[in-house]
Automatic annotation (TrEMBL):
FAD-binding domain segment(s): 5-345
Cofactor entry: FAD
EC annotation from Swiss-Prot or TrEMBL: 1.14.13.1
Organism: Mycoplana azooxidifex
Entries under InterPro entries matching the protein: FAD-bd, FAD-dep_Monooxygenase_BioMet, FAD/NAD-bd_sf
UniProt protein name: Salicylate hydroxylase
UniProt GO molecular function: FAD binding; salicylate 1-monooxygenase activity
Amino acid sequence: MTARTVAIVGAGIAGLTAALCLARKGIASHLIEQADRLEEVGAGLQLSPNASHVLSTLGLLPALEKRWTEPERIAIASGRSLKPLAHVPVGADARRRWHAPYGVLHRATLQQVLFDAARENPLIGMTLGVRMEGYDRAAEIADLIGVRPDLTVAADGVWSTMRAGVPGAANARFSGNIAWRFMVPFARAPRFLDPRAVTAFVGPSAHLVAYPLTDANAFNIVAIHKGPAFISHGWEMHAGQAGATFRLDAFSGWNKDIVALLSLAEKPLAWPLYECGDGRWFDGNDLVLIGDAAHATTPFAAQGAAMAIEDAAELAQAVANASEVRSALAGFETQRRQRVRRVRARADFNRFAYHARGPVALVRDVVLGLRSPERLAADLDWLYGYRPDI
């Protein structure tokens, strides 16, 4: 059986990119999204060269370049002294070394660029405002799009309802970390925030990432610390005074300018960070998970969006080149799980290094100081230089 018609549940980054990659192969798809309209969700995100390569191949890079920022470097600094510890050159160096740009932008900007491209593509249909429960998937989808799809792609995020249809899939679990997200307008930004860099300020059991968003005219701030899931499931919410106090306690002892920045944040949003372990993505028949539905990870390697984009490209390639969809999906799952395992291991290492305490933190700082920017960039060749088949 070949895939002539594909249903994609979820019109986020993973689902929209999958539809565009399939259309590039001449395969029709229909997106089904529970929201009535695609709204701004989340805040900033980083698109490393392994992801921007795919978007460039889809012809989307010019639209993104008009609105994103290409930082000159990815830096690590002390959360206590603000002293620089190390950096990886990106900007023009990323284009030269990895043959694709490293950009930062608001998630809503990327979503809108993908949505506009999908809406204009004659091979892509859309149904908004419908929540798929997954209990009788085939009948639900057939009623919506008028035909039983040859393949259903679940791209409905970490809280996927479609995941229940894949035996052995990993359910979402709390990672033990909470992310606070807010923005600081450029005009009000403190001087220690570098408009030319993505900077991770590291400290005991916590870290803070800051980078400029040209499309929002502000710095994106993400403060992550260990803590209990004191708020209910969901992507984002205000956690009230108790949550705010907990956030400040987690950064006590940090540089006074960072503490002041956190204390003055207006209505920061709290995201409990959930992840999915190494479960199955394919039901053995005609349902496959991609993106966060398959392998939600913590943001310690800044690869959440990139892994979803890679999934979309390689799924389309696998399906388009297959005479039999089931074997193609089994191969896709095997290949992608290996890649995601390595990325997850890098994220786990970063979490350990960023949140190190005492002597371990001292060793971290010394080791980083001994490594040149060129060496640090070479350590990322396997990640940023990866080229998904598309």
